[in-house]
Structure formats: structure tokens, C-alpha cells
Amino acid sequence: MSESQPEFPPTAPLDDNALNQLFRQARTATEWAARPVERETLVALYDLVKLGPTSGNCSPARFVFLTADDMKERLRSALSAGNVERCLTAPVIVLVCHDPLFFEHLPRLSREDNLRNWFAADVGLSEETAFRNGSLQGGYLLMAARALGLSVAPFSGFDAYSIEDIFLADTGWRVNFIVGLGYADAPPRQERAMRLGFDEACLVL
Question: Which InterPro entries does the UniProt entry name for this protein (predicted)?
Fold first, then answer.
């Protein structure tokens, strides 16, 4: 095998340091350091996110990175009161969106013939597919950010219609949830909340 071609598929699990960074010790950020998130980091982040699998490679997620103070301030009126301070102080605010017309890109993205027309003819199916896979890609964003050493804080308390009117009117995109992105300034003040055990949340059939 050529040195330029790694073994595929990879078979070794991640080591404990990586698992700690992604899951075990990772916590939702509550306070942000002043350290900026550079554009190059955002590009690297998306370049990881886009590699995650979606149905038929439909890739419906769209991401709006708010980095300028005046752009973040425009978000204030759409946020629930409890989210304002922690969200607006994040170095980057990400609007995790999806494109209802994602299927227009399928002739370029998918190897399946006529997939674009299949989705275009069924509004319910295309909306469901866009939301499900856009949510999936939003999850990839959280984990990819942690993998790059960033901290994240997802938010769901907001007025979606206001956000779409302020930021997305020219795109037709729909907002799903918001993510604060940056570097945590301090450990969380509270212990990690309880999680359900395997036997409570899982079935093995």
C-alpha cells in the first residue's frame, strides 16, 4: 500500500484523550474568553462538517457565522431573555439553517439519477429531509468544533421568524438552532446534569 493511502476503513478507536475532549469532559460553554475565532478556523470547521453523511448526500445544512458586533446585536431582539448575555458574548454565533431547496444541488452532489426531481415533486418529503439532515449536520458542527479545540453552546430559545426576516430573507433558508462558538473562559459552575442510563434509553433487539 502506498504511504499516501491510509488504511481504510480505520479500525482503531479514538484514545481516551480524544474521547474526553469530544464527550466525557466536554461541557456547554457558559463564559467566553476574549480570544477570537479566526476565519481560517471557521473554514476548517466547515470542511469537517461537510464530510459527515447525509441522505443521498443531500447536504441541506447552511451556516451563517455572525462575527461582527453589529451583526450579533441585530440578533438580540429575537433571543429569549435568558439567552441574550451568554449568546451575544460568544466570539461567533452560528445560525444553523437548512435550505428547503437543497435538491437543486443534487445533480452535482448525488450519483443517483433523477433524485432532484423526486424531491422537487414532493414538498412534504423534501421539507422532512431538509430538517432531519440539517439537524444531523448541526450535530456534526458541535462535535467538529470540539475536535478543533473550540467550545460550543447550543441555543433553542429564539423567534425563528424574526431571525429569518433579519438574516435570511434573501436566501430562503430556515433557521433550526443557534450555536455560540469560541473558547471557554472558565469551567461550568454546575456539575454535569444527570443522563439516562443505557437500560432506560436503549433497546437491543
Answer: Nitroreductase-like, Nitroreductase_HadB/RutE
Whether residue 17 is contained in a domain is answered as no
- Using DSSP's 3-state secondary structure scheme, residue 108 falls into helix
Question: In terms of residue numbers, what domain contains 93?
Answer: 27-184
> Is 194 part of a structural domain of the chain?
no
Q: What is the pTM of this model?
A: 0.93
Domain of residue 140, CATH code = 3.40.109.10
Residue 6 lies in a domain: no
CA distance 190 to 83: 17
DSSP letters of 138-192? HHHHHHHHHHTT-EEEEE--B-HHHHHHHHSTTT--EEEEEEEEE-BSS--SSPP
How many domains does the chain divide into?
A: 1
**Tens digit of each residue's pLDDT (9 = 90 or more) over 155-170:** 999 999 999 999 999 9
Number of Cβ within a 10 Å radius of residue 155: 20
Q: Judge whether 146 and 69 are in contact, CB under 8 Å.
A: no
pLDDT tens digits, 18-48:
999 999 999 999 999 999 999 999 999 999 9
